[in-house]
Amino acid sequence: MPMKKKLNLAPAFFVGPHVILFVVFILLPTFYGIYASFTKWNLMNEPVWVGLDNYRTILFDSKSTFHTQFNNGLKNTFIFVLLSVPLLIIIPLLVAVALEHKKVKGKSLIQSIIYVPGLISISAGALIWLLLFNKQLGMAGNVFGSNVSWPAHQPYAWILVIIITIWGGVGGNMIIYRASISGVSQDLYESAEMDGAGTIRRFTSITLPSIRFPLIYTFVMTTAGAFNVFGQPLMMTDGGPRQSTHVLMMYIRQLAFGNGESIAGMASAMAVLLGLVILAISALQYYVMNRNAA
Amino acid sequence: MKKKWGLSVLTLVLMLSTVLAGCGKDNSKTITFWTPLTGDDGAYMDQLVKDYNATNPEIKVKHVITSDMYTKLSTVLNSGKGVPDLTIIHADRVPGYVKQGVLEPMTAVTAAQPEIKQENYLPQAWSTGTINGTQYTVPLDIHSNVMYYNKDLLKKYGAESFLDDNVVTIDEMLSLKGKLAEGDYVVNDALLGWVILAQIQNLGGDIQENGKPAVNTPVMKQAFEDVKKINDAGLMTPFGEDGYLMFQSGNVLFSTDGTWSSTAHAKVEGLNFGVTNVYSPTPDKFTNRSSSHLFTMMKNKDRSEEKVAGIGKFLEFIRENSIEWAKAGQIVASKQVNESPEFKNYMQSFFTSSEKEIKSLYIYTYEYYPYIAEAVDTYCGDIVRGNVDIDETLQTMQKFVEDKITEGTSGAAK
Amino acid sequence: MSNQMTQQYDKRPRVKEQAVKGKASGISISKYVSYLFLIVLCIIWIIPVIFGITTSFRSQSEVVSSGFRLFPKKWILENYTAILDNTSTAPILRWLMNSLFIATMHTLFVVVVISITGYGYSRMKFKGRDTLFFTLLGISFFPGVVNLIPSYKIIDALGWVNTSWAMIIPGLAGMGNIFLVRQFMNGIPKDLDESAHVDGAGHFRIYFSIIMPLVKPVLIVCALFSFTGSWNDFLWPVIVFTDVDKMPVTAGLLLLQDIYGNYRMIGQLMGSAVLAIIPTLLLFMFAQKYFVQSINLNSGIKG
Predict the structure, then answer these.
(1) By the 8 A CB rule, do B92 and B142 touch?
(2) Which of A132, B42, B376, C165 has the smallest count of CB within 10 Å of its CB?
(3) Chains with ≥3 CB–CB distances under 8 Å to B
(4) Which residues in chain A have their CB less than 8 angstroms from residue C159's CB?
């Protein structure tokens, strides 16, 4: 490697401080969480080592409540991810592209309007949407004449959960795309225009390739975030009807911080399994997108 | 421009850090008192603490409201540092905490304060903290599932007679079938799980058999089926609609929510309401499933004897002066307060108006009650609305509770 | 997967500056399409916000009265006075100051940490660099459930319980912002700093004179995310603060909500939500003109 000797310490200086922070505040707690997944633990006593028992129960004991909860929770989480992630990528991307149009006025205002919901706390946001979809008090019944009780019937329950997620979630990705696209040289667009490339051509052949690195980031992080969902279904549907919107993180949190004695070992095992799923999927996403981008 | 911005941030930061410093306090001369009482409840408790501190006790009380108290308790108990001197916990936490050995008995407090004794409190509020003859808690209140009624609607539908014997039966409710205007309902589904647990008592059943959880039982099935009749007759507010708000909008005759809601209902102009017992399948018995806020001391070896003495004085003060707490809508546990004429001004005094009423306030003390309540809460909506097969779901619920018990550490590590 | 990020930035043809005069008709269509899309979206997005704000000026009686009204029949201030009057249990101004201090400090530290770390993972060459990065990233994907307990113990061991450090420092360990910065930096042609290297410039020079100006928009985005994230965190502060005077505002406002789930004063909840977002909203409005401002790789600054 064509490096001078004095540079050898430099990486430690640049990367090192964060590695220390990471070890103290993420690695140690995470290891403890993984350790807890091999124990029976109520958060207060000393954890009791049980080996792979928790995993065996969750994965293979088909009669166990934890097995059914895990399967149902994971299934619902996947549904949530598949429904929400594409929208959380495409809508902000379209917004960013539309905002990039030179002739569009009031960009700051539009941007602010789309970003604001992300600042509102989930409990307030959920209450707003529940009131809007309330048959008697809201818009859905009084303005649009909907006669359904949304949180209690499918597919409306999912639609409700997805709506509040999209509403609150597009702002972040939008500003990432805005920041990325504004870095794309205007010259590229102009010459493409001279060559007679249409809007869609310019989008696919200039915009997308130029922002592919941030795009990979948003895809991976949005997906990982979606797997961790629990606030939206908890507040909007409380997992119903018939636990069809009961996502895995809700089960995990109930086990660890529910009303009775905590079942934190089992909860940790479920969390580790969820972590492995997230890991596998984000690695796949990264690999595929990075290769296609090359 | 950039420099200036950086400079002003720096100044701000320095200014604030000086503001933030110098907040350290000596903890040996204060009783740290944690409560989960957020919202207005916290303000009422704050007032009580202020009143007590105004009596110039040797050790003052510092009230800390915590929005996620049980999680926070787990963290401090686990690390053994920062454990509060005094805490308010809910009744259903007591058996678990005692079993895990994290509660200090109240023996020293009751020994020093002769008036802090069973006879001076509502009996079930006191006894919920008695485990194997040891007293672990002193009660503040009973808060209960109750049934509010809309006076105007009762009149409109000629249903005032339902209230005559203080028991609204399911049959009485069913008699309104077909008589209601569109958009009106007889009862909502607020705290439905608690309502079901009350019916089990009304039907003479229980949630345990010789210490084993009993969920999949004929009584439980009966309880669900009785309540389901109301739904099947179209008299219950629709699934997924906010029945609590519908009661406040004046579209529902009865609302099965909590004692604490009376203050919120009172803020709705034009809502003319009263309170009675939760409905029952039989005129012979009625039950209001209740819980209690209990003072307790979490194990903490740093808690000095002086502090324990101070805690005793504070609890005695509460026993004598907690009329303030009635403002929160709760049934104050101290007899000196709940038998006073002033307490009669509060709507919830209905539940201390007779021996029978006091008895109707039922607190479950079974150690695995929290798991059973969780199972009932998770599945009751779908059962009552007929979304699921009742027998199959009861089996699932039984298994749900049993699995949680076996996985709990107290079930395994002895 | 260690080498896949070191591949060459594809060298797309540099285009000469050319004045574009005639506008193709396709542009005007896309302008209207853009407008239509943005306006429809904004309407859908703003209605709940307006409804939430106006609800904070409604009495409970009006909230529960049938029929939908975007604006209240009668505007009342009681929800706000109820929040602001409660100065004993809820010192809101104090909370706002605390939050401002915590979020500002956190954000300043974040910008420093992600700058140097992102640069390290993107621009420096050392053995196992990508392996290290992806390992840390992968670990950070594990959902933290019981992590609360060890995290509290660590904070306790550091003596940070009940201090602002407990809020300012742990968040710096996160991987999200570093990942984002690294991705941005990877999009910058390597030949830019390689030629500077040849000219004898050190890493700091290269970072400050070449890389940082180019990634400034993303640093601002990260700063915005960090500030907002720190401001809105309400789980962790509840665990590490006991002193109500030291609470940040988002956690503090939770103390004003009733404990009984839905059974609360709706207008008051909306009021506290409105109060809590004003500072972050102002920050966004201030910051937004900066994160779209970028420096052209070829020429000077453009707006």
Answers:
(1) no
(2) C165
(3) A, C
(4) none
